């Protein structure tokens, strides 16, 4: 949770003024998801990706971001829009889809 709080603070100070964050329950093993609410009432998804290990060196965040960019370039619009990401921080900020 501490990592999520740090990213929340970074996003709020640098990109979008945020007012709240709540953990989204999921069974995923590749990432953790939070729903963020902005001061203007918009909702966003914050994904924190599992870090690579000595056994599994894949960058899950980088792979997903590459796919999202590919999809956008090719007109696939039935997925969340990528707003911001950090390869070094292993997180992405996406539009919230209900």
Summarize the structure.
This protein has 98 residues and is of the alpha+beta class. 28% of the residues lie in helices and 33% in strands.
Key terms:
98 residues, alpha+beta, 33% strand
Question: How would you describe what is shown here?
Answer:
The chain has helices at residues 2-14, 60-73; strands at residues 18-24, 31-38, 43-49, 82-86, 91-95. The protein is of the alpha+beta class. The protein has a 5-stranded antiparallel β-sheet, with helices on both faces. A hairpin with a 4-residue loop joins strand 4 and strand 5 (91-95). The two termini are 23 Å apart.
- What is the C-alpha radius of gyration, as a whole number of Å? 13 Å
Mean pLDDT: 88
Overall shape: it is: globular
Order of helices and strands: HEEEHEE
Strand order of the largest sheet: 1-2-3-5-4
The proportion of residues forming helix, as a percent range, comes to 25-40%
- Summarize the biggest pleated sheet: 5 strands, antiparallel
Structural class given helices, strands, pairing? alpha+beta
Task: Give the DSSP E fraction (strand runs of 2 or more residues).
Answer: 25-35%
Low-confidence stretches: none
How many strand units? 5
**Head-to-tail CA distance between termini:** 23 Å
How many helices? The count is 2
């Amino acid at each position: 949770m501490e990592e999520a709080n740090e990213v929340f603070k970074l996003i709020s100070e640098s990109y979008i003024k945020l007012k709240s964050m709540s953990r989204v329950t999921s069974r995923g093993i590749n990432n953790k998801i939070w729903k963020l609410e902005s001061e203007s009432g918009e909702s966003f998804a914050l994904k924190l990706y599992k870090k690579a290990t000595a056994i599994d060196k894949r960058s899950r965040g980088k792979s997903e971001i590459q796919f999202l960019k590919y999809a956008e370039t090719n007109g696939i619009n039935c997925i969340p829009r990528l707003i911001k990401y950090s390869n070094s921080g292993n997180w992405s900020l996406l539009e919230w889809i209900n």
